[in-house]
Amino acid sequence: MAEAIFNHFANKEGVPARAVSAGTIPATEVDPQVADILSRHAVEYTKQVPKKLTDEMLSEADYIVSFGCLIPDMFPRDKFEEWLVDDPQTPEEYEHTFRSIQQRVAALHEILRKKK
Whose CA is closest to 111, among 40, 17, 47? Predict the structure, then answer.
């Protein structure tokens, strides 16, 4: 969800950055409820597939956001941020998670604009 939201709004706002999402234990497919919430907000996601996080991805990243699966002390503070969000179960919780990530993405876009 975060990758799709980040890239959607980066494209709309002209933010010169691209997100790649990966997990330590990736799912086999995009969660249908995530697909539903992204579709309802007109956020493109169809080219996304769950990916396994690699050391190469981490070393190439300009900025790393973790949802509780990485150890913050492993990364420079100016390159790492932890976004703890609840694992949604209901449509209302998926909406809340979408809004929470959208707000955090907007703040991250501001940080990235200032760095460039």
Answer: 17
List average pLDDT for each run of 10 residues in the chain, which is 116 residues long: 93 85 90 94 88 90 85 80 90 95 91 74
Structural domain boundaries in the chain: 2-107
Burial class, 1, CB count within 10 angstroms (exposed 0-12 / middle 13-18 / buried 19+): buried
The CATH superfamily holding the domain 2-107 is Response regulator (3.40.50.2300)
The DSSP code sequence of 33-54 is HHHHHHHHTT---TT----B--
pTM above 0.90, yes or no: no
